[in-house]
């Protein structure tokens, strides 16, 4: 029903980048964030696309996100590298860690990248898809703010804590999944709130600990893990891998630190890369990938079953041909950022933030 | 209702080992298998305990499992080692890889162990618990035989494909989970079949692709992944990590190879270890573990929520004090193995196997 504007993928990138630059992001950060937003919009992952632009701005306006700091890469151990994002948004730090991680995995067989002090409101599939495009197997784990109750509990503790995985293919886009350990992504609830829709059963409990279908109650209460205690265990694992393992925060700490309520939690992300050829004496990657195809054929050969990223790749092809549809209201908001007309909104935000800061003291 | 025999934990080990030795396993294999079976029985993981003894015997009698081959360890890359089990059962190969993997992780920060050509009917938590007892974070992944349909599909393709994870604690037993990517472990269905019980909804479909509560129909049809498509993605990931990555088989290949229908699939297992101290500049493991305790406190502080391995640790304490209860029928079967009285059963098995071998030619 709501009006939309159709943009080409390049126009999405140009618009996002212009808005980020105009509001004060440095060129390299603006490019990396625009890359991330555009990839999501292109693949019809709406809640990580242009929908996230206000979150990037909130991070900037509140002073919680540095608009310009350079990521700092260090080697912590022979197979472990670390990129300190210095309290900036994660896309540039992840891009900075990508090639060094891949090289280390190709040399050692397995390697890990710790990204710390990074504000993250993006999907994880871009970083593991990049690794798979280099012929590597990838994992990524990131925590968030306390949104999800542990199985059996009633109070939010875990982030939506996604994990992503990628497997390379020969001449085909990689098999990739990126899934929240909550029953739904938080963005899906936020979009339903915006659109006045109710939630499916099993997504959330209200502040009273009882099941709810109301997005507002859900956001005030707690989301639920997917798949009961098993999904809850995955959420706990992600929390440990993205927090204490990296010397970064747990979701509840990230939430407490976001005093300006930007919705852009700051924390760690663990990325692991493995080189299949280093797991086989003789290292015949081609045979390994051909072997995996025997599995993929038997998945897609079953009516109703599909490979996890295929929906995104279909959207990607569609977007390249027909462009993407952006809600008019959102488009206008981003245009106003790009035109530098958001001063009022920005000042209000900063005022609010100062209030929070004073309270914290 | 069924009669039970109470054994001490040491008696379980002695009985299992005597049975394995009497039937022809070499001392080191018999010890490693008895260790695994005893740990499971002690922790009240019944379907990986003495219940599995006939599976070990089937593997031996059918000629599919070597009773005596020594595991061969090689270094494939600076951070990757491989143990070839040579078509023997996995416990000895996993024990052989444990210390070398831990040392490599302590040196490089992260390291991987590939165990190949191993028959596996055991749980995964022993190998990750061992790593955590050394202060490391552990992952393990293993496939099986084709039991589980991909989400949306109707035919078995994936194994029950468990993944395990461990996190070390200071002065406390580690936090460990080991969970099938199917809604239930296959052993849980087998035990319900044995006990004449029905299955909960959501565990399985029959050979007709329709939901079933009948354990027999479920074993002939397909189990279902936990948590819908997300659990299905985990199953696919495990399949790729334990098979093509290691140059070992996919579950459907392991199933086809088990011509004697032993129920003891042969394949690969991936174990990953990380040293937390190598992920933090300065390497303050104590601080990292103390940080993780802040999460654990907030899990156990919620009524109804608990840490994943606590049930096992409670059982462990109970078993140390009161011993374990073993069904009398199972106890007698194992006694007959130990007394060398299972010749008839063994010969029948071998006859059956020869028929299969002839068919295969």
From TrEMBL, chains A, B:
To which protein family does this belong? Belongs to the LDH2/MDH2 oxidoreductase family.
Q: Please report the name of this protein according to its UniProt entry.
A: Ldh family oxidoreductase
InterPro entries found in the cross-reference section: Mal/L-sulf/L-lact_DH-like_ah (IPR043144), Mal/L-sulf/L-lact_DH-like_NADP (IPR043143), Mal/L-sulfo/L-lacto_DH-like_sf (IPR036111), Malate/L-lactate_DH-like (IPR003767)
A Pfam family annotated for this UniProt entry = Ldh_2
Instruction: Indicate whether Oxidoreductase appears among the record's keywords.
Output: yes
Keywords assigned by UniProt, alphabetized: Oxidoreductase
Q: Which Gene3D superfamilies match?
A: 1.10.1530.10, Hypothetical oxidoreductase yiak, domain 2 (3.30.1370.60)
Q: What GO molecular function terms would the record report?
A: oxidoreductase activity
